[in-house]
Design a protein that fits this description.
40% helix; globular; alpha/beta; kinase; disordered C terminus; eight-stranded mixed beta sheet
Amino acid sequence: DTNKHKRFFESLSGAGKAIAVLTSGGDAQGMNAAVRAVVRMGIYVGAKVYFIREGYQGMVDGGEDNIEEASWESVSSMLQMGGTVIGSARCKEFRTHEGRLKAAHNLVQRGITNLCVIGGDGSLTGANLFREEWSGLLEELVQQGSVDEDAVQKYSALHIVGMVGSIDNDFCGTDMTIGTDSALHRIIEVVDAIMTTAQSHQRTFVLEVMGRHCGYLALVSALACGADWVLIPEMPPEDGWEEKMCQKLSANRAGMKRLNIIIVAEGAVDCNNTPITSDNVKDLVVRCLGFDTRVTILGHVQRGGTPSAFDRILASRMGVEAVLALLETTANTPACVVSLCGNQAVRLPLMECVQMTQEVQKAMDEKKFEEAVKLRGRSFENNLRTYKLLAHRKLESELPHTDFNVAVLNVGAPAAGMNAAVRSAVRVGISEGHKMFAVNDGFEGFYKGQIKEIKWADVGGWTGQGGSLLGTKRTLPAKHVEKIAEQMRANNINALLVIGGFEALECLLQLYEARSVYEEFCIPMCMLPATISNNVPGTDLSIGADTALNAIVETCDRIKQSASGTKRRVFIIETMGGYCGYLASVGGLAAGADAAYIYEEPFDIRDLQSNVEHLTEKMKGAIQRGLVLRNENSNENYTTDFIYQLYSEEGKGVFDCRKNVLGHMQQGGAPSPFDRNFGTKISAKAMQWLSKKLKETFRQGRVFANTEDSCCLLGMRRRALVFQPVVQLKDETDFVHRIPKEQWWLKLRPLMKILAKYKTSYDVSDSGQLEHVVRNVRPKESDPSGAM
């Protein structure tokens, strides 16, 4: 009985508890999604939930306006708003003992002993101090006669759970903080726009991004747009960097590149701790090279705008996790932070994270920069390593020379981020000393001989391009094995990198089978999952899925807004994904859908009936709009039209209906920062693996690899990137419906239902247990972080 091991949270009741939620410090996109999740999950488990407005200031000032009880409806249509609706302020008073005494009094009056704090390290440190002083503060209030003895007994302990909302991603212990992904979206939108004008005028642009003490935004945006140079506080350039930078800029111009992009974090310094400003860099370029150079300072644009799909899902997951953590705390559990490690929710002791975050700053002040990078965590270190690998082209004389030829191709439907992966593979391959070959139009182009060498400069500017520049086809190799083997022989191909969706997996399986007949296929082969449907076994995420989710979420926002001011309306929206319900389910969670119909969770007329009734009930209240998603192949009889007609009929007099098929807009568009980064990172890792395999399997003057582990898929599993032999993935796959037999995201579906006011059981056995912050001493093989 599987339920024996599952811990359902029905056992965790919030009855009689009061939870307050506040946002403090600088705002970040996605804070509202977190507030919404805390409020709804809190109400769901039977607790009273309060908003504290204006951060700690509201807690100190008290009063009905500042601390008010939240209702289910009070957080509706909050999900798509940037910033924080309940306000945030920096509060000097809370730093004083008197201020905290006032705050304690205001909380005790309402019986609030559970705090959910969304903010940066300062806000969280303040919360922890407040928790430690709590019993002393209550004693003081009794002496003043402000509260009675009973209250001290009843409210003896204050429980605190933190969520980190900060666009800088500067908090140790968490891969991604709420708001970081959205800030990257803003930066990349600007960089993409600037590139077109720079191209026209052959200009150099110096972009200054936020990050006073942390270079994450600068580093990742440099990776995501292929910038020529990046300056961050954690990696001050060595003496003489000015000359090196100018050499690189002019070399790029000589190589037919019409523009240069330099990204500067606002806290960038040189190795003597002297600040490097964007104006310094501009003057330098003009003085040394005479290039037409402009400066753009992005400033608060980065904090604004709607949250990205990633931030909404992250914040919703963390908000629910925070309520569970509050329900499970006892008087002696330390204050914790809920965060994300890879794809996994974790809980970490708040003060361990804060101390480590402060250690980073200390290491930087003491000029121990390598240590600072290590303390930042595996995600940061990995980004830095990949950037160094791709940014600086070695001279021919410096390159190792291997005599190996590696071919790269795309298979299946196009997915945003494929080009970033190809660029990364080509450049890493060349750095490793191989000759790189590009195959056009997948395996169809392969057997027709559309194979040519591809050089470093050929892939310049590819990261930001959507679709597949190499061309891609769904053709499988089985029918043309002989011709493909012939081409492998003719071009002397020693290794293969295949980037694509479910077809790519089938291709690799067919080539693996063909090894017994054709020795040409006895070479190292690797596949990278790239498909918007995210339906490839062996990986939690695929390149392209994040871009598609953002397209869905943006469209749902617009569609919902189209009904504002009209009478009550429900939208039925059809998403792509084949038989895989990932886009419908996770898109539904990010867009705040009321239901998402998918193939993996069979539904019948009774379910449709209860969904309609549920919506009718909600629509009679204060809710104006409903959103229902349906995966294209969720059921052959309950079509989108059927569901639309059913809702229209049953909702008569309460709401009207509209339907929308999103179609191919989900496949197009420029790749999101996440997909550019994910594609770049896994592709670099795959090339290094291929190089290692080539060396291992090179015997008597030729490459010979026929073991299972020389034909792998590189996927992200929970917290690590893993190479898995494709043969071993066969048992995990439903080939008829082209989906994995087990899919991690199905456990997010109850979240969507809870946040849409359905009673459901939610398995919390997967929710985070309290762990400790891992010191990143020497990264193991499985280092790359899931969330960029």
